[in-house]
Amino acid sequence: MNSLIERVKTAMVGIGTGWILVLMLVLSIVSLAIMLERSWLYWSLRDDMDELMRDFGRLLRGGDLPGARRRLEASRSAEAAVVVAGLVESEHGVEAAQEAMEGASALQRMKLEKRLAYLGTVGNNAPFIGLLGTVIGILAAFDELSKGTLAQAAGSTGGASQQVANQALMGRISEALVATAIGILIAIPAVAAFNAFQRIVRGTLANTEALGHLLLAHLKAIPLPAGEATADAAEGSKADRTSARKDPPEDSERN
Fold it and tell me: What is the reported pLDDT for 18?
């Protein structure tokens, strides 16, 4: 077991922390690219939702469904794209419109949350990667210290050699601390961007739900056509007659 531990330690000291620094540099570049791309996407989808809901509600109350659709299509927001899908299917009924909006909302959510998992993963794990570099650096520092101690015990080093060993030891320790610092510096903006983007996604979905309920409320308030209303009335009368036949009058029961 001691031999195995020594081999692992030798391998870790041998590879050093350079590869960890390169890895974290790559992760930071990719994270920055994702943050810029997501920021541009959310900026391109922005719209004044208060004004959009006022205009959409006014057009619905006026019965101008084509105008309401044109107003939504003129908006570049994800909310408008979802409600347009429901408005297109509104002629087939409320349930069809609701199903269409749920499907469109799922697609928009996938679009908005794309690549956010990478930011969350980097934010959670970058400090641990830096800590790994720190551990390797500390092992290298102790290895340098043990070499200097053995050489000093053998009496083969002078003051100059001891100074070189101390410099190497300090260099290893500083390298270890740099790895941890870089990991933290990568994690902080990644976590901050992840939380900010998640808040934007939640706000967008909430606005979508509010706009969709405005459409559904209008569709449910539309009176049924005359044929359907007559059929519903006939079914109601038939149900009343059936109930009357099943339930005899109270007077008959007393007699």
Answer: 80
Distance separating alpha carbons of residues 252 and 238, to the nearest angstrom: 23
Question: CB within 8 A of 194, min separation 6: which ones?
Answer: 116, 119, 120, 123
Distance CA(201)–CA(120), nearest Å, equals 15
Distance of alpha carbon 242 from alpha carbon 26, whole angstroms:
76
Using CA atoms, how far residue 126 sits from 25, 139, 177, in Å, is 11, 20, 14
Question: Among all chains, which residue has been given the structure tokens 């650096």?
Answer: 137
The amino acid that residue 230 corresponds to is T
For 242, residues 6+ apart whose C-beta sits below 8 A from its C-beta are none
Judged on CB neighbours under 10 Å (0-12, 13-18, 19+), 22 is: exposed
Q: Note the pLDDT of residue 198.
A: 95
pLDDT at 221: 82
Q: What is the pLDDT of residue 234?
A: 44
> Which residues of the chain carry a pLDDT beneath 70?
1-2, 9, 144, 146-169, 171, 222-255
Burial, 138: exposed, middle or buried (Cβ in 10 Å; 0-12, 13-18, 19+)?
middle
Report pLDDT for 244. 47
Type of residue numbered 96 = A
Closest CA to 86 of 237, 214, 248: 214
pLDDT given at position 80:
93
Among 181, 167, 89, 193, smallest CA distance to 127 is for 181
> Distance between CA atoms of 170 and 167, rounded to whole angstroms?
5
pTM over the 0.70 mark: yes
